[in-house]
Amino acid sequence: METKPYLSLVVPIFNEEQNLPLLYEKLRALTQYEWEAIMVNDGSRDGSLGVLRGLAHGDRRVKIIDLRKNYGQTAAMAAGFDHAHGEIVIPIDADLQNDPADIPLLLAKLNDGFDVVSGWRKGRWQDRKMTRRLPSAAANWLISKTTGVVLHDYGCTLKAYRQEILKDVKLYGEMHRFIPAFAAWQGARVAEVVVGDHPRKFGKTNYNFSRTLRVMLDLITVKFIIGYATKPMHFFGRIAFASFIMSGISFLLAFYFKFVLHASFISTPLPLLTALFLILGVEFLLMGLVAEMQTRNYFETSGKRIYNIKETMNL
Description:
The protein is α/β, with parallel strands linked by helices. It is built from 10 helices and 8 strands. The protein has 2 domains: 7-227, Spore Coat Polysaccharide Biosynthesis Protein SpsA, Chain A (Alpha-Beta Complex); 232-300. The chain has helices at residues 20-28, 48-58, 73-82, 103-110, 130-147, 163-166, 179-185, 209-228, 232-259, 270-300, and strands spanning 7-13, 35-41, 62-67, 88-91, 116-120, 159-162, 190-194, 309-313.
């Protein structure tokens, strides 16, 4: 019977054939901890899976999850989280931009009484152009303000989570970067520590502008979930109430035109606005009721996984 590891290192992989042996050597240097490395092959088209099989044959601490296609980083992380056995779960990039040598820094902060510790690549943008630094700073500021969890570097994959924190976190879209916000919503204590950032040695980055757009759209979803997931009627009800007020104001103005000024209001937009806001109010009220029923159904039924596994090894 295998000993339960202290650390579960979750590594999403997409076309990282040349980086994997180097990453494994760095993981082997973590001799002070019992660990497992859950390598999630996210539909790689190069020889990544072959390299992983070779590593797994030689070391049972290396565990493979081979997904049927490229689902994206969030789904790959979700697969790794679902199969992690360690007390502490640490996602880390396969491209060596995150250094496993920084893991003790995260663990030391966890031992100070925190549940989530996020890496902060403090010097990442010092030598980059302003056109790249400003969007990153703006995005982190916006996410911090929207979620209420202030972090300097939401995009850093290197984080440490206590296992129990991840049990109730459901991931989809590009939601993996918002886990600290979801965890804080559930009462977790969140902190961050400065970690290193290293240039990619092999391969090319999988980041592009479309991912930035998806992140911004997911941020809207996160804001709604954190604020109204268990009470959607509070959200839709406010909009419905505002619509009813606008409808009432339009009606009173029409009444004023007709009976005080003795002027025709037919040529004004007031009748249309009265009817429009009334209809909108009813629609948002009904949407709130439907959302309430869907929320109840969500909490009473098990959710479908966002990934499909082709094969595993050493799990």
